[in-house]
Amino acid sequence: MSDNKKWFSLDLGLNNKKESSGSCGCGKSEGSCNSSPKEEELSADEFYEAAINASIGEERHRDGFEQVFDVKMDRRSAFKKLTASLLIGAGAVTTSCSVTTGSDTKEKAQIGWEEQFKGNYKLMTDEEKQGTINRLMRSYELRTDKKINMTAENAAEDVLFGYAFNISKCQGYMNCVSACVEENNQDRNSEMQYIRIHEMKDGEGFKFDKADDNYYHEVPAEGHFYMGTQCFHCDNPPCVEVCPVQATWKEEDGLVVIDYDWCVGCRYCMAACPYDGRRFNWSKPEVPENEVNKNQHYLGNRMRKKGVMEKCTFCVQRTRKGKNPACVEACPTGARIFGNLLDPNSTIRWVLENKKVFRLKEDLGTEPKFWYFMD
Amino acid sequence: MKNRTLIYSVVLLLGIFLFSCKEEGKYHSISDKIEGESKPYHGILTSEELLADTELIEITEGEHTFLIPERKGQIKSFACIECHSKPVSQMMGKDAPKAHWNIKLNHANSDAMNCATCHNGEEMNQLNTLTGKNIDFNLSYKLCAQCHSSQFEDWKGGAHGKKVAGWAPPRASNTCVNCHNPHSPSFEKRWPVQFNTKTAIERNEGLGH
Amino acid sequence: MGAFKVFRSLVVDSLDTITKGSKKYHLWMGFLILVMLIGMYCYSIQLEEGLSATGMSDRVSWGLYISNFTFLVGVAAAAVMLVMPTYVLKDIDFKQAVLIGEGLAVAALIMCLAFVVADMGGPSVLWHMIPGIGVFNFPNSMLTWDVIVLNGYLFINISIPFYILFKHYQNKEAKKSVYVPGAIISVFWAVGIHLVTAFLYQGLQARPFWNNALLGPRFLASAFAAGPALIILVLAVIRSFTAFKIEDKTIKKIAMIVTVAAQINLIMLVSELFKEFYAPTHHSESAYYLFFGLHGKNALLPWIWTAIPLNVLATVILTFNKFRNNLKVLYFCCFMLFVAIWIEKGFGLIVPGFIPGPYGKIVEYLPTGVEIGVTIGIWAMGAFIFTILAKTAIGIELGELRYKDKKA
């Protein structure tokens, strides 16, 4: 393990299999750690059970779509595990000393620990970023026998993402909403959606309280216009300011992102957002295995766990590769324009310079990078 | 003794205040930031790879040069002269087989437009402008631009229409006929593809009192 | 070494004291333990199902937990109202009350922390918040300020009484030069914890209901009414159940504090109501929802219309010397005031902040059984902790608990 880590890290001995077994975390003599599984198998059963429970809980029995280390708690082990995670080290000893039979389970435990006690993604070096996405991909494979492709691309140079929404073009078909849900692996149970389309009456101006954002009738409805909202990726984001653990931050290319594994779930950011841009996983998010989008980014559409925030990332897994966000691609009317604000030849720049643009709640000083305009 | 404590606490408070002063951003607003940071622009991301499968042609309109999808290869029965071997006027007749019977023109009214407004009846592989100048099928947007000038301006700049693959340069924009059926260009009414039952329950059921 | 021995003896002695008592005492402690167990069971359900087991939603994302947290910060801060006259102004009257007040502050702070933990989506990663090990977003996030000041206040409020009791336990006089500076710091600190907690809400431009300059001062005023009111009630109980002597004069002095704070609080309430309803803007909708209901949604009406009359009535009664000096009336008024402020500064403050949502949408909030169970459990825990602390402190102060040197 690299020396420049900024947090506690745990070595369970997996990484140095070739070295002598004395180097494993328990510090005991050779006989009691990892070297003699056969003799101690029976007596070690309980020990092993406790170790796995302490670190990954029900991970072994997981089926399907769960990719994250959402440590499931049953009533009996809830408090045990809570203590285990809080008391760094106690569990480490049990795990590393456990005598296991399958290397897979051992590997899962190892990954579970490293994930539980890894640092904040924002502060990771590129190698550490690569390390965590490798672990996440490997653990998904171990659990489902299926592969996912996760990346950790950083922001490209001279890129600042911006978005423009044409309120005279939007017809309210909501193709963007469903494309977003599918692209970003949003929880199907609670029907989480990042995008809202508000149906407004002509002649009344922006009366959001009177607008319907969950209509179901033929659209466009007579005498109405449509306006979409989502996370506006503010340049001065209040949500980032208030986060007590810097689990959410603004990337170099202007995307406001969340490290789902670092979030403690206090929901302060949700209270601070004036645009209803943030969503919370009130229960365990579920996506049917065959609907999982397997092209993922660490900061984007990878699977979330319960009790963490999530939000629109302008589809970071797509946009950092030069593609458009899923909503832009899905929009049948071309109401959504996306591009690089720093490129003087980009279409978004042309829109900002030539159309009559405005933003929502500009008086709050949040500087959203999401503009509205009309034909 | 007491004075000293007081001084210490004041200094401490001042220190905390200074420490908590946020670093002022370099820019006052996002427009300043855009202007300030885009000066030497050298973005490297491209969408060339994403465009590799699409056949594109480059056009220049005013100060804008960009790519649009090639059209002729997408029209099923191109080239037209494979059937329309003679001008339409000569092919029309009672015994000739009917073609394109399913096309119903739903574009402006019949006083303003008919088939010949765009299609060249003499030279079927070409379109023609209002003044009778030939236009290639690949450049059909020029026909639309004759009437829809404001949309054309927006399209050239990028405010109207969609991109082919991604946001990254080179710019490849869909042309008019990629989204609009030229014979019936407006979008139709339909049902939204999504309805959030959970939100509906949450809002309408209230608290049950 | 010697201090450690004394400490061990103190722990043993206090364990001995808190496990012995009258039948009523045992019944009370048994009841608290039962409620705590129920609360823990409810919390385990919440851990398993996630926060969907509560009544909170994306619209109203803070509920009963944060409401109680906010209120209890006020209760904790109120201990200062007793500390200041005793230690700084050298008013002997409060000497007996101050230990009780600080015990109350400790219990309230522990409850605060418990409520915050209960509200977290990921309690297993709370170590991310520990400075040094995790990443602490200081000074940007007001929540980090709150963590610092609450824990600091907890430390002060444990250490001062502990020092005094520790000395008294050994039959020694506590040194003024040791605890008076601590007491002075704690006076500033108490104002700090409540102001910082108010800033937690006040700093959110997204929520106009909270985003007003009066929120902080009003927090202080209501805290200095509700906190000492609770202290009066607790002193009344202690007076009737233990031999600990608390003079009428002390209670009357605290009553004076309650009265003044309640009056100031009322003035601020009037000012707030004037601002919201004289020239109502779009930003007054939350206040409309709270007081009159909005678009047919009116879940908070019965609560707030209980709180306001109670508040006004109690303040008016307390204002008259004749009534205030009658202890029975005083206790009743304190109870009314406590309930009124609990409603008003609990979910009467938190929930309307979220209603209507950023886009005018209304989803009402009603706590679930699990949520209420956890809340009551935490209150029981607070009462439990306070009882233990108070019993030990009273034992020492009465001279029942004394260090017996084994050698002697």
Automatic annotation (TrEMBL), chain A:
Residue ranges of domain 4Fe-4S ferredoxin-type in the record: 254-283
**Keyword set, alphabetical order:** 4Fe-4S, Iron, Iron-sulfur, Metal-binding
For molecular function, the Gene Ontology terms on record are: 4 iron, 4 sulfur cluster binding; metal ion binding
The segments labelled Disordered in the record are 16-38
Pfam families from the xrefs?
Fer4_11 (PF13247)
Q: Where is the composition biased (Low complexity)?
A: 21-36
Cited PANTHER family: PROTEIN NRFC, PROTEIN NRFC HOMOLOG
Q: What is this protein called?
A: 4Fe-4S dicluster domain-containing protein
Annotated source species = Zobellia amurskyensis
Automatic annotation (TrEMBL), chain B:
Organism superkingdom: Bacteria
The keyword DNA-binding appears for this protein: no
**Cited Pfam families:** Cytochrome_C554
KW Signal (keyword) present = yes
Domain spans labelled Cytochrome c-552/4: 144-179
Q: Which PROSITE patterns match?
A: PROKAR_LIPOPROTEIN
Keywords for this entry? Signal
PANTHER family cross-referenced by the UniProt entry: DISSIMILATORY SULFITE REDUCTASE SIRA
Please give the name of this protein. Cytochrome C
User: To which species is this protein native?
Assistant: Zobellia amurskyensis
From TrEMBL, chain C:
Name of one Pfam family that matches = NrfD
Gene Ontology cellular-component annotations: plasma membrane
Stored InterPro entries:
DsrP-like, NrfD-like
**What's the protein's topology in the membrane?**
Multi-pass membrane protein
Question: Keywords of this protein's UniProt record, alphabetized?
Answer: Cell membrane, Membrane, Transmembrane, Transmembrane helix
**Highest taxon in the source lineage:** Bacteria
Q: Where is this gene product found? A: Cell membrane
Q: Which residues cross the membrane?
A: 27-46, 66-85, 97-118, 147-166, 178-201, 221-242, 254-274, 300-320, 329-352, 372-394
Q: Which PANTHER family match?
A: POLYSULPHIDE REDUCTASE NRFD, PTHR43044
Stated family:
Belongs to the NrfD family.
Tell me what this protein is called: Polysulfide reductase
